[in-house]
Write a structure and sequence with these properties.
Blueprint (H helix, E strand, L loop, with lengths): L1 H7 L3 E4 L26 E4 L21 H4 L4 H6 L42 E7 L3 E5 L6 H11 L4 E6 L4 H9 L6 E6 L11 H18 L1 E8 L8 E7 L8 E7 L3 E5 L3 H14 L4 E8 L2 E6 L9 H18 L6 E7 L11 E6 L19 H6 L5
Antiparallel strand pairs: 1-2, 3-4, 3-8, 4-6, 5-6, 7-8, 9-10, 9-14, 10-12, 11-12, 13-14
Length: 389
Amino acid sequence: MAIAALKIGGFRRSKSSNPVAPESSNGSGHEGDDSVPPSPRVTVSSQPASILKTHTPSLSSGSTSTSFSKKRLSIGDIRNLSINRSETTDSRWSADEDTSTSSNSSGEMCPLPESTKKAPFPFFSLTLSGTATLSFIALPASVRPAVISAVQRAWRHGIRTMDSVDYAPELMDFHRRKGCDGGVWEITLKGDAWNPPSADKVASKRIILYILAELARQGYKLTASYRMSAKDSGKDTLIFSACEPDPDPVFFAVAFYSSDRVWIIDAEADVGQALEEGIKATWVDGVKAARVRQRHCREIKLAGSPWVAHSKTSLISARVIHLTVMKYVTHKSMGYELAGTVNMSDLDSGELPISFYVKTGHGQWGTQDTLPTPVPVSEAARKSMSVGV
C-alpha cells in the first residue's frame, strides 16, 4: 500500500466532467432508480505534460495492471519515482496570470513576474555547466554584448558558440509574452574553462570576475549562488538581481586552491599586500612562500595542508584564515564588501568556493583610517612575516 500511494503521488485527483450513475446493486438490472442519487466518478488523471521531459502516460482508474504491485522495487527505483506535490490548484501563481492575453488555459503557469519596458524583469540566472558553458535564463538581450565583452577579455581562447536554446518552446514563448526577452542563451568557450590546464587556472576565475564587473555597470548584482545538481561535478547557479548601476565597479577575488594555496586575484596593491601580511600572521604553521603567480595574482603557499586537514587544530586554524580575509577586506580603510561566493568545480580546487569582493567605499567595521598592524599568532607565523619580501 505504501508503494502504491507513492506511485499515485505523481498524479492529481479530479472529478470527471461527465458524472456516471453507479450500477444498481439489487441485481434487477433497472437503471435510473430515483432513490439512489447519482454520484460523480472519481478518476485519476495525469498532470499537464512536463516541459522538461517526455510525459509518461497516466494510470487510468479502470486499469487493472498488476505488474506494479507484484514487482519488487529496489531503493534506486523508489528514489527515481517522480513525486510532484506542488501541482495543486492553490499553489498556482494566479497573480502572474494574464487571462486577457494568455492563449492557453491555466496550464501555462509562468514562474516569472510581470515585466514591461518601463519595469523590466528584475533578475536572471547564470549556470556554469559542462566544461566550458555559461547558460543564462532571462538575461535581457540588451545585456548580452557586455557579457560577451567580459568573457572575451578574460578568456584568451575565445568563444566557440553562442546560441539561444529553445529547450521548451511553449515555455519560452510564454516568458516572452510576460516580458522576458532573454529566454535561454548559452555561451560555450573554447578549451576547458571549468577544468583548465595550469596556465589557464587564473583566467578561468577571471571569467566570473569580469562578468560581475560588467553586470554591475549594467545595474545587476550577484544575489545568491547554489548548486542545482547533485552530480559530483555540479557547479553553481548564480542569481542576479537589479540594482543601481555602478559606472566604475572594482572587484577582486580570493581563491583557496589545491591543498595549501591562497590566490588573491586583481586586488588593488594595498589591499593585496594587507591580505598577504594578515594571512602570514594568522596561519599558525607559517607560510612557505609568497610570490606573483601571474600578473595581478598573488599566490601564498601555506605550510601544511589546511584545506584538507583532519586534525581539529588545523581545521579551526584554516577557518580563521577565512575570517582574516573578511577582517582585512571589510575594514573601514579598505571599503570592500563580500559580493558572493561561487563554486566552479576546478578539479584541483575541489569544492572550495571562490570569494568575490566589491568596493563600496565604506567598510563594515573599524574606526581607524588604517588597518591595525598584524600580530603573529605563533613563532612560525612570526618567521613568515619576512617570506617573499
